[in-house]
Design a protein that fits this description.
286 residues, alpha/beta, TIM Barrel, eight-stranded parallel barrel, two-stranded antiparallel ribbon, 9 helices, globular
Length: 286
């Protein structure tokens, strides 16, 4: 078993929740997992507790609440009582309190006039914060797939989360990157309190990674570094985050990503990339 590296979180969005995935993570030095109340057909916590019997004490677990089952499909809600019930159910299904609970994609329920949306977000944040105070989780945060709506809703009146998780990487897009950075400023978060997710835009096997070479953004990269490894390493700078949640059921793939952490990004190349992204957005908007 390698020494633990807190910069990687094993994401379980599309996981099969097999025990070998968890043992492989520990062997690679990854001792944090991220899941959700809604993953795996709303059975992720039970599946994780079953697959990880005897192993879960070795992991820090983060999960999310905000989506709820209906007769036909999932629905999103920021209703405080529903969030609290989901956190309580998560404790029962996991057999322990999660270390962190994220408010899951709050933007899905914030398409309302500014005062209404701000109050709705504040009430939801307070509900998750209260659950943490009550010992139902170790801390709380906000996980946003599209943070563009959130910065204008955040002011000093809102509870301040312990962690915010946003999309990261070369495919996140200029507007999402800018909004994520603005959100971190509004909540006065340090880089360690900002997590990234979806570093490959959803698919590390996408043909795109065979057509572009992210190694251009890595300082002194050698021939042994793959494009996928480089894309993963770069995601820590787009935006600047302390941890990245990445999903894989392949332990060898996870070990490759751990190995990529020994490289550093080339700041000048990334600065140029961000400038080109901004220029592209400006041209499209004209």
């Amino acid at each position: 078993m390698r020494e633990g590296d807190t910069r990687i979180v094993l994401g379980l969005h599309r996981s099969r929740y097999e025990r070998r995935v968890l043992t492989g993570a520990l062997e690679a030095g990854v001792d944090a997992v991220d899941t959700s109340f809604s993953y795996h057909g709303f059975s992720a916590h039970t599946a994780l507790a079953t697959a990880g019997r005897g192993l879960l004490p070795h992991f820090r677990i983060s999960t999310k609440v905000g989506f709820f089952p209906t007769a036909s499909q999932a629905e999103h809600s920021l209703a405080p009582e529903r969030l609290r019930e989901a956190i309580e159910q998560s404790n029962r299904d996991l057999g322990r309190a999660p270390d962190l609970v994220f408010l899951h994609n709050p933007e899905r329920s914030l398409s309302a006039p500014l005062p209404v949306a701000q109050e709705r977000l504040a009430t939801a944040c307070a509900a998750v914060e209260e659950a943490a105070t009550a010992g139902l989780c170790g801390g709380w945060g906000v996980s946003s797939w599209d943070a563009r709506l959130l910065p204008r809703l955040v002011d000093v009146s809102l509870p301040r989360p312990d962690v915010v998780m946003v999309r990261a990487g070369l495919l996140a897009g200029s507007e999402v990157l800018h909004a994520s950075e603005a959100l971190a400023v509004r909540w006065d978060l340090k880089p360690a309190q900002l997590w990234g997710m979806s570093p490959f835009g959803g698919d590390p096997l996408d043909a795109l990674w065979g057509k572009i070479d992210p190694r251009l953004f890595i300082h002194a990269a050698d021939a042994g570094l793959s494009p996928v490894q480089a894309a993963f390493r770069v995601s820590y700078w787009l935006p600047r985050v302390g941890r990245v949640a990445v999903g894989t059921d392949n332990p060898s793939h996870l070990r490759e990503l751990v190995d990529a952490l020994r490289y550093e990004a080339d700041a000048d190349s990334l600065h140029t990339y961000r400038r080109l992204l901004r220029q592209r957005v400006q041209r499209v908007g004209q």
